[in-house]
Predict the structure.
Amino acid sequence: MGDKYQLAPAYRTRSVHKHMLMKEVKQRDFDLVFLDLKMPEMDGAKLFRRIKTIKPKLPVTIITGYPESDMMAQALAQGPFGVMNKPFDESDIITAVNNFLGITQRR
């Protein structure tokens, strides 16, 4: 999977291959991350911990189809910005981004 850019009103999104993820997190300034909890060959909870170690203030929204799992409990212990349960639709993503924008604008 290569980089994917999608146009959204005043926002740029980026999809990152798993092998490049930590390098991207270290080198780039992201405003918000959407992270799937369960991915092929990856543990989202462990990846979330690594992200929080590198950039503790980076807001991460966890996406999960397993809200009652041990992996989700591990992720929740790290204090994600938000959680989105699968299945979700475009309006759920817009709501999550608007919540993020509302909080950051109040700071």
In short: The beta strands are 7-8, 11-12, 33-36, 38-39, 42-43, 60-64, 82-85. The helical segments are 21-27, 44-54, 70-77, 90-106. The CA atoms of residues 18 and 99 lie 27 Å apart.
